[in-house]
Amino acid sequence: MLHYPLEKVLRTTKAHLLKLQKIGIFTVQDLLEFFPRKLESANTRTKLAEIQLGEKQTLYGILNYFRVEKSRRGKPIGKADLELSDGTSVAVIWFRIPYQLKNFQGAKKVFLVGKVDRNYGTVQISNPEVHFNQNVHVGGIRPVYPESPPLTSKWFREKINGLMVFQKEFDEILPSEILKTEDFMGKRTAIKAIHFPESLDMWERAKARLGFEELLAIQLRVMQSKLMREKIQQNPYKFGFDPEDIKKDFELFPFELTLAQKKSLLEILQDFDKDRPMNRMVQGDVGSGKTIVAFLAALQVIKQGYQSAILAPTEILAKQHFSGALKFFPADYSVECLTGSTPAKKKENIKARLRSGEIKVIIGTHAILTEDTIFKNLGLAVIDEQHRFGVKQRNLLGENLAHVLNMTATPIPRSMALTIYGDQDLSIIGEKPAGRKDIITRIVADNKTMETCNYFIDDQVKKGRQIFWVCPLVEESEKMEAKNVMEEFVRISEQVFPQHRVTYLHGKMKPREKDDIMRAFKEHQFDILVSTSVIEVGVDIPKATVMVIENSERFGLSQLHQFRGRIGRNDMQSYCFLMVGDKEDKQKERLKAMEKSNDGFYLSEVDLQLRGAGEVYGTRQSGIPNLKLADLHDVDGLKKARSWAEKLLREDLGLSKYPGLQAMVRSGEVFYQ
Fold first, then answer.
1. Which residues contact 106 (CB under 8 A, 6 or more apart)?
2. What distance in Å separates the CA atoms of residue 224 and residue 622, rounded to the nearest whole number?
3. Distance separating alpha carbons of residues 137 and 196, to the nearest angstrom
4. d(CA 1, CA 20)
5. pLDDT of the residue at 478
6. Where are the alpha helices (DSSP H) in 135-274?
7. N or C: which end of the chain has fewer CB within 10 A?
8. How far is Cα 492 from Cα 83, in angstroms, rounded to an integer?
């Protein structure tokens, strides 16, 4: 029954069912595993002395004198008095009259759930829920679910309560050893307690148990992949390195590498000499110099007579890497670029030279991943922003047991990184090259500051600098009063800066169009680029010194930091202006962290604490698991899950002794997509 479609067991509207499907809830099990985000008190008060002002609570008494009056604006409002057991009364007001009271007359015992305050000396409960009987909404504590109209917490409580009869069909998947050692409650008990707990302690225990299950699934998945690779693969491209030779390579750069860059390179070079192929993730903040580390690693590989491939998510980024590679690699090593726009004849020539081994370094996009792209001896595959490529695509480069080096510019807290990249060794480049100046960031939340900002931008353009102008939306939306690209493009190009060259860019454009615009901007054919978040990961624009972000309160700190990373990639002072759309928005306090710090890892920690992993990294494309209860900030919990995963897999790599865990691990394979 757990796998029954909801339309067969729920009495509800088609609109509710469609909304459920939109958020990924199709079956009984899906709904029972849609967990509340918090609890709220619904304890019943029957006397005035028991009432806690300023808090939501349940009042029980007799509803008297219900009447409908007109507000100052002529809208109907409901008013009544609630008589409590001690003879006192509380004023009741509804600005939107509940359907239960449409034909209400006389007096009746009711439960009212709402916030109680004192208004002009009178104790008043505003817009309370109305219940004529004791039910799951009143008394004790009640769950609050993530809401998405028409799906409300009230709706979820009623429907999930009706499905609790199927709770007994959940199988226990955790081994008895884990349940006993960690003092976890059983799966069925946890499902009941997470929705309708008898106490806050019971809810916390259910949350810990179900959250651990999520973390264990991820750890089993990534560690199983790692252990299987270690068990069956040998390293055909094993070689050591000469420290003196590496020092000479450093001299190819006109600047000193940071200690973090040198440490990451050392870890990569040590991997080359191990018994299994390397599978390492280099995680570095924007502008930290990951590409330089990749080039140095590739140089060592081709010195041994092997080939290297560098895969980029966009054509313009691939060409940027290619331009840098031509300057870095010695002339006697053939370097080529292969993208979707490469002419057919040239593609054939490049692929023939790859097969013969003549080309030592190939840089490109998805075009490298075709079946007819065959290497003679690919020793190293570098994948820039790995989450932009599917698992099967990435595996094509590793099929011949090449060393794989993944790179990401997304700053993720180490505790989370160990969860996401647990099947890879991890290197972190946490410092920027010497000479890079911190970007000066300011919040712009009033018209006077906006005028000053525009004068400053005009001056920057006159000095030959360029401007990124980021907006949340492509076109105007009735649901969101956020700035949009097309509207802003017209405003900026015609009203604010008609004297400057302005263009626009958004995600609905074709890839070739986007590349052409970015190329033109890089060549300084335009002064201002009005864009959506498509510029979050992209090319270097050396003359770009200003980043303007409209409705900055709508973005997370980590994403704002990614935008900011598009500038400040030179020795010029750069500036970031965070425009606040809602002048009263409390998010301004959160944005102050951007003014204080240029450290992406620090900002990701702040974001994780304030917003949670789901909101910060919550798209499947980002490669972050969509967790329901587990806390990726809980380092102890992560270590515990990792320890148990290692123990179980050392005993039984295929998990054949634990079919429940085996099924859970397999069902999560989409996590890697």
1. none
2. 22
3. 10
4. 18
5. 47
6. 153-163, 176-182, 187-195, 200-232, 243-250, 259-272
7. C
8. 60
pLDDT at residue 284 in the model = 84
Tokens 């989450």 sit on residue: 387
Distance CA 402, CA 141 (A): 56
Residue in this structure with the two tokens 């394979």, named with its chain if needed: 669
530 strand-pairing partners: 469, 504
Of 518, 539, 578, the C-alpha closest to 286 is: 539
Q: Burial-class residue 588 by CB neighbours within 10 Å (0-12, 13-18, 19+).
A: middle
CB 665 within 8 A of CB 70: no
Alpha-carbon radius of gyration of the chain: 30
Is-contact 518 505, C-beta < 8 A?
yes
Q: Which are the contacts of 628, defined by CB distance < 8 A and separation ≥ 6? A: 33, 34, 35, 210, 214
Residues 6+ apart with CB under 8 A from 250: 257, 296
Written as six digits, the tokens of 354 are: 């790859």
Environment class of residue 339 by beta-carbon count within 10 Å: exposed (0-12), middle (13-18) or buried (19+)?
A: buried
**Bigger pLDDT: 619 vs 412:** 412
- Are the C-beta atoms of residues 153 and 144 closer than 8 Å to each other? yes
User: Are the C-beta atoms of 301 and 308 separated by less than 8 Å?
Assistant: yes
Q: Which residues 6+ apart lie within 8 Å of 366 measured at CB?
A: 340, 389, 393
Three-state DSSP string of 7-38: HHCCCCCHHHHHHHHHCCCCEHHHHHCCCCCE
Tokens 């507000």 locate to 71
Residue 190 to residue 179: CA distance in whole angstroms: 12
Instruction: Express each pLDDT in 143-165 by its tens digit.
Output: 999 888 899 999 999 999 999 99
pLDDT tier, 503 (very low <50, low <70, confident <90, very high otherwise): very high
Tell me if residue 508 falls in helix, strand or coil: coil
Average pLDDT of the segment spanning 263-288: 90
pLDDT higher than 50, residue 617? no
More confident site: 603 or 132: 132
- The more confident residue out of 556 and 352 is 352
Alpha-carbon torsion (106, 111, 115, 121), positive or negative: positive
What order do you get walking across the sheet with 528-531 strand by strand? 440-444, 575-579, 544-549, 466-470, 528-531, 502-505
Beta pairing, strands 403-408 & 378-384 = parallel
Given this model, what pLDDT does residue 612 score? 56
Tell me 578's DSSP state. E
DSSP for 397-420, written as a single string: HHTT--EEEEEE-----HHHHHHH
Torsion of CA 203, 207, 209, 211, to 10 degrees: 180
Give the pLDDT of residue 542: 84
* Domains of the chain listed by start with CATH number: 1-40+149-169 (no CATH), 43-139 (2.40.50.140), 243-429 (3.40.50.300), 440-597 (3.40.50.300)
Q: Are 277 and 421 in contact (CB under 8 A)?
A: no
In this structure, the number of other CB atoms found within 10 A of the CB of residue 280 comes to 19
